[in-house]
Amino acid sequence: MSLLSVKSATGVDHAARLKLGQAGREVGNAVTVLLESARHGNSAFREAQESLLCTSSMILDLDSAEIFAQSGNLDPLDAKEHFSKHKESLLMSAKSLTDAVQDLSNATQTNQDELIRCFNNCTQEATVLKEKARESAVSITSADNHMQQKLLAVAKNGLFKI
Question: Nearest Cα to 138, choosing from 93, 56, 94, 72?
Fold first, then answer.
């Protein structure tokens, strides 16, 4: 007789027990892989939420600066501060943010680690843009508060569309 059809004296089929044990281990391994994938995917989701919260905070900061610009109270501390000093860095930070958003768009087809890296990069570049926009608006001075408001509104709109 073969081992597969042999039952012990207690009536237990050892081959079926062996197969059942193997199937249990395979299911356990598959569940472990599934849970790890879910945990890893959850970390990317949490990173996206954190990035969204940071961006919302940046928009609120630019809103505050825009309120000061509307009231005519957004002036530089140093009277020698001019917009021309900030123009190039403002443009470069806008380009860097555009590149980061493009990378994020491309990362949706890659792995979770790359997606997390791209979320972090977008948040960092958005922070730089917010700071550059605020510094640039302050350097315009309240004598041209309409231009300050436009600059802040454009930066805020850019962050909002991320």
Answer: 72
